[in-house]
Write a structure and sequence with these properties.
heterodimer, A: alpha/beta, Rossmann fold, five-stranded parallel β-sheet, 6 helices, globular, disordered C terminus, B: alpha/beta, TIM Barrel, 7% strand
């Protein structure tokens, strides 16, 4: 039996918000758990994020916003992914996101929203449980 | 300094106490931890005595309030003379809505204004710019032109309030707008008091709203120093900020070290531009964070004051005492607020606010309980302001100056923080100073490491965050959060359109052309930026001109 290839994750900061402590901590925790992580840096447009995700062939996109622009920017990313017919990327998100916004964001296809106080281990586990294991692809 | 004999005697008695009394208790059971640590990982001893501050020389190291090295405070009477300025950072949506919030805060006894701008304004984009979509009015007020500033301060006389503006890359433009607004109210620039944050180095390090590369950014900053030293004697030309460095995960020691290193870089840039130290240094101000670890935070403020005084006197040969005084604003720590059981945040904020007052702050913003969830609602802001008022009027801590001075622990921590910050500053000097250290990613990496260590300590349970990794309850989602009207973007776009149709567009073009020409020279940019603002050029138009001449900064990203 071969080991699974590491899961590839893109951590992305859409919008103009410069708060990336959370994004960087999550990126490092995912990396420490064995995943390959790419961090976009600040101020990426939804177009840039989707393009990077496709180019880098990631299985997961983690979006982070703390400015309150999530209701506009997260759906925009999902719309572009759909437009490009990308359906197999797991999209998760985090930031300062009021509970009442979560149902709408899940409806457009964000699989999980991690709000402040989430242990990074929860995020690692969520990804591991929800990304299809690559062992199958290799056989 | 105690004499050797009495210290020896103390050491002997301490040893006896350990053997006869302490060890008996320790033999029966351990203390709660092997090692006790402050919030910033300074190891904390069981108790402190004079033995731990043997080197402390009262006159040399503490002195008197209002006198070098200002450890005990920068004013001879401190809060007995005048309380700190209660200054709540606020702004959201349109200029009209924010104006209403400012009037509410002033009516509640707030004594100064602090303007939060939205991200497009901070990044120099007009509200209609494609990158502004979804962000207009979200984390602050949208300001596209002098027209919006006129609305923002409608009914607020600028000679009666002091105004702090959290604006960095486009600070010169917002300052120009404030000057022009003052003139419209019949108030000359020398009567205006307030602060622009104007601290670009910490934007590269921690906060992220940079536009131009370091060199032209430093020029804009020194241009402001020079302009204000002539025309605006009451204006704080910069607020050198550790706040965001700490929020990004730095320890208290790193906060002091990196902030003062940035301060050194600004002083050096101004000296290089030909300014005299005592012409601009008295208007430098600082901005620190206040965390939960009460004693460490108090010590941090004292250490920062002493260290800066020494730097200004010894390194830069300042003569004017005002150049040596570290005046600072404090904000309680946003990163310590929890989304879980948000009312607990009221208590955290009270401890943090108390730390800043015991540390001798000049002004204070207290966070609201709901800020891990959204912008604060009006009743949350009121509690936050009331917290300051209770400390000011009921706690009694204001009646004597620097009340914790002389505590063995506080003085030990003050010495330790100063010494360790000094070591960092020397390291940064060796790297070529703050701008070079930032370019190499040194500060960023140090901060990221601290942030990660903290997170791991919380996840392992070594650090307890009440309501997060201990003492949870099942909670209903919080109701009544503040919502920014999503139509603000459209409103602002319509307003810009109207402005562009009604202003003298020939004057706009001429002013922007003059700005382009000036930016290519070494001349001070302030006068021509004021001209642009008065011609109702938009913020985006002005920044675009500067982007064309200066270029844009691209950060390298390491995780």
């Amino acid at each position: 039996m071969t080991d699974a290839k590491p899961i590839r994750v893109l951590i992305a900061k859409p919008g103009l918000d410069g708060h990336d402590r959370g994004a960087k901590v999550v990126a490092r925790a995912l990396r420490d758990s064995g995943m390959e992580v790419i961090y976009t840096g600040l101020r990426q447009t939804p177009e840039q994020i989707v393009e990077t995700a496709i180019q880098e062939d990631v299985q997961v996109i983690g979006l982070s916003i703390l400015s309150g622009a999530h209701n506009f920017l997260f759906p925009k990313v999902m719309e572009l992914l759909n437009k490009k017919n990308v359906q197999d990327i797991l999209v998760i998100a985090g930031g300062v996101i009021p509970d009442e916004d979560i149902p709408l964001l899940k409806e457009v296809g964000i699989r999980e929203i991690f709000t402040p106080g989430t242990p990074t281990s929860d995020i690692v586990n969520f990804i591991k449980n929800n990304v299809k294991n690559n062992v199958d692809d290799e056989n | 300094m105690a004499d050797k004999e009495s210290l020896d005697n103390l050491a002997k008695h301490k040893k006896e106490w350990e053997e006869k009394i302490l060890n008996k208790v320790l033999d029966k059971g351990h203390e709660r931890y092997e090692k006790f640590l402050t919030g910033s990982n300074i190891e904390v001893d069981r108790m402190y005595t004079e033995l731990d501050i043997q080197e402390l020389d009262y006159l040399r190291d503490l002195g008197f309030p209002g006198d070098y090295p200002y450890t005990r405070g920068i004013y001879p009477t401190m809060y007995r003379g005048r309380l700190w300025t209660m200054r709540q950072y606020a702004g959201f949506g349109t200029a009209e809505e924010s104006n209403k919030r400012y009037k509410f805060l002033l009516s509640q006894g707030q004594t100064g204004l602090s303007v939060a701008f939205d991200l497009p304004t901070q990044m120099g984009y007009d509200s209609g710019h494609p990158l502004s979509r979804g962000e207009v009015g979200k984390v602050g007020v949208a300001i596209d032109s002098l027209k919006d500033m006129e609305i923002l301060f409608e009914g607020i006389p600028l000679d009666k309030v002091s105004t702090s503006m959290t604006i960095n890359a486009p600070a010169a433009i917002l300052l120009a707008m404030y000057i022009s607004l003052g003139e419209k109210q019949g108030i000359s620039p020398d009567q205006l008091s307030g602060t622009i944050q104007n601290d670009i180095l910490k934007e590269y390090v921690a906060r992220g709203t940079y536009i131009f590369p370091p060199e032209p950014s430093m020029r804009l900053i020194t241009n402001i120093f020079e302009f204000c030293s002539i025309h605006m004697p009451k204006w704080n030309t910069i607020s050198i900020s550790g706040y965001h460095i700490r929020e990004a995960g730095a320890t208290a020691i790193q906060e002091v070290a990196f902030t003062l290193s940035d301060g050194i870089a600004y002083v050096e840039a101004a000296l290089k531009a030909g300014l005299a130290i005592d012409d601009f240094a008295p208007r430098l101000s600082f901005f620190f964070n206040a965390h939960n670890d009460l004693f460490e935070e108090v010590a941090k403020f004292r250490a920062a004051r002493r260290l800066w005084a020494k730097i200004m006197k010894q390194r830069f040969k300042a003569q004017n005492p005002k150049s040596m005084m570290l005046r600072f604003h404090t904000q309680t720590a946003g990163s310590t607020l929890t989304a879980q059981q948000p009312d607990n945040n009221i208590v955290r904020v009270a401890i943090q606010a108390l730390a800043s007052v015991l540390g001798g702050t000049q002004s204070l913003h207290t966070n609201s309980r709901d800020e891990a969830l959204a912008l604060p609602a009006e009743d949350s802001v009121r509690i936050a302001l009331r917290t300051q008022q209770i400390i000011a009027y009921e706690s009694g801590v204001t009646e004597t100056i620097d009340p914790l001075a002389g505590s063995y622990y506080i003085e030990y921590l003050t010495n330790t923080i100063e010494q360790k910050a000094q070591e960092y500053i020397e390291k940064i000097d060796k790297l070529g100073g703050a701008p070079k250290a930032i370019e190499k990613g040194f500060m960023q990496q140090e901060i990221q490491n601290s942030a990660y260590e903290y997170q791991m300590a919380v996840e392992s349970g070594r650090r307890i965050v009440v309501g997060v990794n201990k003492f949870h309850v099942e909670e209903e989602p919080v109701k009544g959060l503040l919502r920014v009207n999503p139509a603000v973007g459209k409103l602002q776009e319509a307003r810009i359109k109207e402005l562009k149709a009604s202003r003298d567009n020939l004057a706009v073009e001429a002013a922007l052309k003059e700005l382009t020409d000036c930016a290519k020279t070494e001349k001070n940019l302030m006068p021509v930026i004021i001209k642009c603002v008065k011609a109702y050029c938009t913020l985006g138009e002005i920044c675009n001109v500067l982007r064309d001449v200066f270029g844009e900064y691209k950060a390298s990203m390491n995780i």
